Amino acid sequence: xxxxxxxxxxxxxxxxxxxxxxxxxxxVFSTGQELFYFSVLKNDERKIIMKHIDVKEIISSKxxxxxxxxxxxWVRTSRNSKSVAFIEVNDGTSLxxxxxxxxxxxxxxxxxxxxxxxxVTGTAxxxxxxxxxINAVPENITILGDCPTDFPLQKKGxxxxxxxxxxxxxxxxxxxxxxxRVRSVLAEAIHKYFQSNNYVYVNTPLITGSDCEGAGEMFQxxxxxxxxxxxxxxxxxxxDFFGKRAGLSVSGQLEGEVAAMAMGKIYTFGPSxxxxxxxxxxxxxxFWHVEPEVAFAELDDVIEIAEDMLKHVIRELLDTCPDEIAxxxxxxxxxxxARLEELISHDFGRVTYTEAIKLLQESGENFxxxxxxxxxxxxxxxxxxxxxxxxxxVFVTDYPKEIKSFYMKQNPDGKTVAAVDLLVPGVGEIIGGxxxxxxxDKLVAAMNERGMNLDLYSDYLDLRKYGxxxxxxxxLGFERLIMYTTGMANIRDVILYPRTVGSIR
Length: 505
What we know:
single chain; alpha+beta; CATH 2.40.50.140; BirA Bifunctional Protein, domain 2; 4 domains; 8-stranded mixed β-sheet; 5-stranded mixed beta barrel; 13 helices; 26% strand; elongated
């Protein structure tokens, strides 16, 4: 079967196989349950595609039983007996392995080592405990990549600290196989939620000339590096790539507000960078940020969106990743699944900052950090409010303006702003947001109080001149969401390559 493509000298043909899915190039056609693929041939070069079926597909369906199948993957375990060998293979598509049962009597068998990559062709069969395994003979097992005996991930327990020392290999462990799949499912659920609710996905710049938080904790972007030849700081930056000081974005919010003033409802989902000297289990220098911005919205609307989104993505995770959640429940946090189910089954609580301070002061608890009106709530305070007082997720609103950012709407009392943090049991703060200040004069006054350079924010201020509207949004640290939904205690364990103070790899 041939199909002509638009580009000249490119020919495509269909490779038909009796299995539902093969890893070739693009789908040609579907026959109901079976999806067939074709490979692209350029300049008449015939390239052989390594066709195989995902391990997840084989172990999750009895449709393959009795059929010849091919899998590729890495050897997780290998056991050898007199007449039969058992090899467990994982290709990353599933937390579970597929067991290959090798009939040694049918040919010369060389036992593969843990860590080797293999291609196995055999017959799918029913195994013990309602599983699907593959019966194979030695000649149908191909070693794709050798692996020496010093492969670090042998079949034994490994500490998370050790696994952090081998970030390029830790994905082959059960823990990080599960973490990264949870990460993928949560990302998809976030996009699905916003897309289904008429939000526009925008990409905000990673290099910026303004600091969203006004705290100055930005990584500098430069092409000229250290140099003593310049007479002043202004002279130095004038000669740099952008002609002025530039840094990596700490948030896409300000640019997100620009988009929301045109599109109504938008969201960003991308990396942010904070040059905070914080070497804690909850901080990264590079993290992923979910930031919706909504026009014609007040603080109550922001709160409603945050609760609805969080419940949606957690529900999606529970439905899509039962094996992974069961794994984390068994090995990292007993009762994790029950906790997540409990979270999404109740309306979230709500309390003002002033009320929360009073509750903390009257608690009788001996907190490490003293509690008084005007203090920034610490994790111990946040957890007490969510765990001991409410026993569920709770929104804290109306914080003192001195401890919040310049862009938050000022309340009529002159002391607080329309800010909100979402506190969840076990973690503390997971979402921070606000209604944004839509009044030009009040925004300028707040920026002047902080000694900010208004010239750097001219575009942002213009939004308050030309058809300003009530609007708001929030930020969700994606890695903290992963921590919360997996029970992982250290943020370094929920991202491929963690970027932290004094360490980069």
